[in-house]
Design goal:
- There is one protein chain.
- The protein has 437 residues and is mainly α.
- The protein has 2 domains: 350 residues, Fumarase/aspartase (Central domain) (Fumarase C, Chain A, domain 2, Up-down Bundle), CATH 1.20.200; 54 residues, no CATH class.
- The protein is built from 18 helices and 4 strands.
- Strands 1-2 form a two-stranded antiparallel ribbon. The protein has a two-stranded antiparallel sheet with strand order 3-4.
- Strand 1 and strand 2 form a beta hairpin.
- Helix 2 packs across helix 7, helix 7 packs parallel to helix 13 and helix 8 packs parallel to helix 18.
- The longest helix is centred in the N-terminal third of the chain and has 37 residues.
- The chain is elongated.
- 44% of the residues are buried.
- About 1% of the residues have low confidence.
């Protein structure tokens, strides 16, 4: 198997990194770091820390420089970070020694890399929000369109009482809608400028340091944390936790779709083929969602460990993020898009769903029967009587409702209803449409 299925020519069609792929390349990392240096120089010039002419030269070079990431590989391997090698290459691109000497003034490698990451995360979150919105939109359509379609609810994997397909879709969708509402807090933590200097004190910039950071944040469209965030990894850890939440909610829906397909209650248009069994239509996409969510749980557990940070800057914790965060982003985004594709391919078999999981004996009505018997009988006796009737139904092969009517002709037995299912489905569909605008 390849080192990463997201970049594999063989598996890439399934794992489909999509619009996230260009944001997670060496070239994108280098380009975003140059933009950080441009904003830093402009902010420092505005505060009188470096010459205006130097800031203009740095700004031009940041937009025009073409630096090959491969040329930085040896220096990156030696320093563990690409900034020293990139800084040397960029100073050459600036040209004149005087302005080139002002590049990176008073900053440190982590300032540049973390701020450059925030710039790319801003775009990544927009891509992921689009994927999330697509899944929610598909769920809203399913919930509204199938609000009254009867379906057997399952508890402990067996038919329990009736619900509707729309209510189940709403159950899938509400956690995703809540995850969407939480994105604002995720952005507030993840999209922050980092400008703290070597030890988090901004000592090289003197009293103008905080003003430089504020100007830089404004120019880049990031938040000013007002202090050093070198050892505060809440931005990355919180983003990973949110990804786990979104991927897990997607996988819950996918697991239920797999169960519906297995029960013959639905099929997936264009489902996967078997190499030897021509009748097979495998639930490939929902299985992919589940696999990605399972992987995300492990990735997140490891990435949360980066919160444990030694001193003012911790190389091991930082490298942990480099290893895991790209996989977290790619996996979560693909889980969301694959869920949307799954829902768009879902074809319910309404007749099979109306059969209530093959419940030919009508056992799914047991709760309604026990409730109807409560009154004529004490509650405990009503439940015990329903259990006896259910056992007889299994033994004789006679439907439970018929046995109940025969045994208690004076009791009106209403059919098992779906309670608030239809209303819940329509309420979710309306709420989702309102949230998406």
């Amino acid at each position: 198997m390849p080192a990463s299925p997201f970049s594999s020519r063989l598996h890439g069609g399934l794992f489909a990194p999509g619009a996230l792929a260009p944001l997670l390349t060496d070239g994108a990392e280098v380009r975003s770091m140059l933009l950080v240096w441009r904003a830093l120089a402009a902010a420092q010039a505005a505060e009188g820390l470096i010459p205006e002419t130097a800031a203009r030269a740095i700004g031009r070079a940041a937009l025009e420089a073409e630096i090959d990431p491969a040329a930085l590989a040896e220096g990156t391997a030696r320093s563990a970070v690409p900034v020293p090698a990139l800084l040397a290459a960029f100073r050459e691109a600036v040209g004149a020694p005087e302005p080139a000497g002002w590049v990176h003034w008073g900053a440190t490698s982590q300032d540049v890399m973390d701020t450059a990451l925030a710039l790319r995360l801003r775009q990544a979150l927009l891509v992921m929000e689009d994927g999330l919105d697509g899944a929610i939109r598909a769920l809203a359509a399913l919930a509204g369109g199938e609000a009254a379609t009867p379906l057997a609810a399952r508890t402990w994997a067996v038919p329990a009482v009736p619900t509707t397909l729309g209510a189940v879709a709403a159950e899938w969708g509400r956690p995703l809608l809540a995850a969407r509402a939480a994105l604002g807090a995720v952005r507030a933590d993840a999209l922050r400028v980092s400008l703290s200097g070597a030890a988090g004190t901004l000592s090289a910039m003197g009293p103008e340091g905080p003003a430089v950071r504020a100007r830089m944040a404004g120019a880049l469209g990031l938040l000013d944390p007002g202090a050093s965030i070198h050892a505060d990894r809440q931005g990355v850890a919180g983003l990973s936790a949110w990804c786990t939440r979104a991927a897990g909610a997607s996988a819950k829906a996918a697991e239920d779709v797999i169960a519906m397909v297995a029960a013959g209650e639905a099929r997936l248009e264009g489902a996967g083929a078997s190499s030897t069994m021509p009748q097979k239509a495998n639930p490939v996409l929902p299985s992919l969602v589940v696999a990605l969510a399972r992987a995300q749980v492990g990735l997140d557990a490891a990435l949360q460990g980066a919160r444990i940070h030694r001193g003012q800057r911790d190389g091991a914790a930082w490298m942990t993020e480099w290893l895991l965060l790209p996989q977290v982003l790619l996996g979560t985004n693909r889980a969301l898009t694959a869920l949307r594709e799954t829902l768009e391919a879902l074809r319910p078999d309404r007749a099979a769903m109306a059969a209530m999981g093959g419940d030919v004996l009508g056992l799914i009505h047991a709760e309604a029967i026990s409730l109807a018997l409560t009154g004529p009988l004490p509650r405990a006796e009503a439940q015990a009587e329903t259990q006896r009737l259910a056992a007889r139904a299994r033994a004789q092969g006679t439907p439970l409702p018929a046995l109940a009517a025969r045994a208690h002709p004076d009791v009106a037995f209403p059919p098992a209803g779906t309670g608030t299912a239809e209303a819940d489905a329509r309420a979710f569909a309306a709420r989702a449409r309102e949230a998406l605008g």
